Amino acid sequence: MATYEGTWAYRDRFHEDFARTYFRPFGDFALSSIGVGTYLGDPTDEADEQYHEAIVTALESGVNVIDTAINYRCQRSERVVGAAIADSESQRDEVFVATKGGFLPFDGSQPDDPGRYLHEKFVDSGLVDRDDLAMGQHCIAPDYIDAMVDRSLDNLGLDSVDLYYVHNPETQLEVRSREAVYDQLEATFEVLERRANDGDLGAYGLATWEAFRVPEGDDSYLSLPEILTRAEQAAATVGNEESHFEAIQLPFNVYMADAFTTPSHDTDAGPKSVLEVAHEADLHVFTSASLMQGRLTSEMPDRVEAELSGETRAQRAINFARSAPGVTCALVGMGSSEHVDENVAAGTFEPLGAGAFDAIFE
What residues does the NADP-dependent oxidoreductase domain cover (predicted)? Predict the structure, then answer.
């Protein structure tokens, strides 16, 4: 697991290569504000080799945050992350590893009949109750997530992960009420609290796509204040004084800035955006889709781009995500070492200050 000593030793080794705010706190840890994402790419040996080289390069260039998920590239992403950490010059306690569980994963490649495969491997085996499935491929039931934590640790070859996300819980809203989703999340949080007590994970959270960014009336909406309440109740049930719910992940980029602009979460002080709620709750925010699957490398509003620092458009897009208030780390897909060099160099430029960032939206 990442440690104070390890992450600060990593920071001390690299911080002079970057701008002042490049390394940011996660509790006592020092984390790079640019992280490696491992979502994109085909489940092939060639892609594995490219990811392996890219992750090793990133770790040896000043990036100590790696994000993955059990379903990414049919479990191959988790496996290559573990291998790359082992093969790099970085020590395990210097590296912050996050993974996710929720979508039922294939194993190594996509089968000819995906639906039949998932049914046989997960439902017929008793690992997943059919009633807990959404869209035939998603489950956040406590026993399933508990089993996926173990499988992720096996894939990664690690004794623990630093952050474990319940993945896209809004998917469950396709088949059950919002209150039922909150209830199931609370039960699953109890499992994750126990796993944290056992040292299998350092913290947990939710990785979402739409849930926190859409208006309250949207079919995909989930309330962050309510989820925080459920996490507190789960911690109390387990006997923990404080919850281990410490982070959220969501898309944030120039074209998807509603985490900052949409006041969709009710608080005692009135409706606030998810970034405001997260900041006030001392939650860490990790942004996904920082380059919008590459779109922002070819286009960006001129008015916004003019305010951002960076030699390339990709660097300016990354620095937009890093500029949002409360963001700990902007995750960027890095499927090749060439991407690593350009993306990491974004950290040599300062992101926008709070006033300049606010001004973009005026």
Answer: 34-355
